[in-house]
Protein: UDP-N-acetylglucosamine 1-carboxyvinyltransferase
Amino acid sequence: MDKIIVRGGHALRGTIPISGAKNATLPALAATLLTGERVHLSNIPHLKDVTTMLELLGQHGSAITIDEKLGVEIDNSQVNNFRAPYDLVRTMRASILVMGPLVARHGQAEISLPGGCAIGSRPVNLHIEGLRKMGAQISLDEGYIRAKAKRLRGARIYLNPVTVTGTENLMMAAALADGRTVLENAAREPEVTDLAIFLNKMGARIQGAGTSTIIIDGVEELRGTQHRIIPDRIETATFMVAAAVTHGDITLTDTDAESLESPIQKLRESGVVIEIQDAGRIRVSAPDPLLPVNLETCPYPGFPTDLQAQMLVLDSLAQGVSVITETVFENRFMHVSELQRLGADIRVHGNVAEVHGVDHLLGAPVMATDLRASASLVLAGLAAEGATTISRVYHIDRGYERIEEKLQALGADIQRTSG
Ligand code: UD1
Structure:
């Protein structure tokens, strides 16, 4: 199995481009199931999760043409299999995103329940209840969600707690439903807005995406179109933290500073200098020492839970004590015990991490436990003295495109080894 070896202590310098957003790509790929006409998507990142979603579409009967530079073209005129099998769903929970489109256009879907997950129980009850409200008949059978509906009908649906993929699944389903659907307490993430823009290009009638009330007037059918996926805000901020903890000076291009208001504010609080050259180009440099920052993860526009692990590394190297509170997921501090192996002083009390900054971290062998946790280990390795060997790096390949190549381009000493 692949490992990543990082030898820390090099200040990162240089310019790298940011990839398309994983969390915008996955729903957009699922949304192509809503039409039988060809759809073209560009700025698709090369990631394991994207390959998994393409494999899932392939199983449903999608014809997919991949052009490394131009993106993917998908033809769903021959979709004939409505089952998302356990083997794929268990590797990627976002597979549940095909449920809404399949039921809306084909009247049926059979989706494996996602099962266990390293960051808490993560149920999908809101996806199911929402479709039920839209008239789908749903049963749970042998580990599968079986959903059927002649035609979905519009409904008023209140989502509690706020759910990103739940909002996306129901928005896609509602696009082809009979009548008006109102999603209340909807997720406001930029990826939800990007999906709404894409669906509207396909002929959907969606208003209010980006606010907590989304109104969808169902249409009879959707058509083919082209769409460019937005930049990955989590990848962008991960590189910003990399610059911060190595006291480097880097420029990120092809990104979108507007979607990063809260992380930029927190990084500035820690003393990091962030220059937004234009919305798509951000220069980041960092002084030594860094200042500790307190934060609480929240749904957008709050501080993203997908950056919590990375900020723990920053706070571990800051001068003073800070508190990080995780409110979105239970059990999302799995990376703490690995960071402690490098010398971090982090004390977890329930969903609160109390971080006592240390002078330096020391390289050690560590194990990635989930996608964002593995990014935090790479960041810690970049800042640590000596070598950090990270195993189970398949987690990082799910969400970061060519991370070691991008870091090498910034002067990091990072290698991947197999075996
Ligand atoms: C998405 C992102 C993930 C990010 C998360 C929170 C994708 C593909 N993934 O995941 O990277 O970490 O948003 O920003 O976009 N919940 C329920 N019932 C449900 C659904 C969710 O109780 O039916 C709860 C979850 O357990 C969690 C909270 O709602 O506590 C938020 O989860 P949700 O927004 O649904 O996360 P995902 O959409 O799975």
Notes: The first helix runs from residue 22 to 31. The chain has a mean pLDDT of 95. DSSP finds 14 helices and 24 strands in the chain.
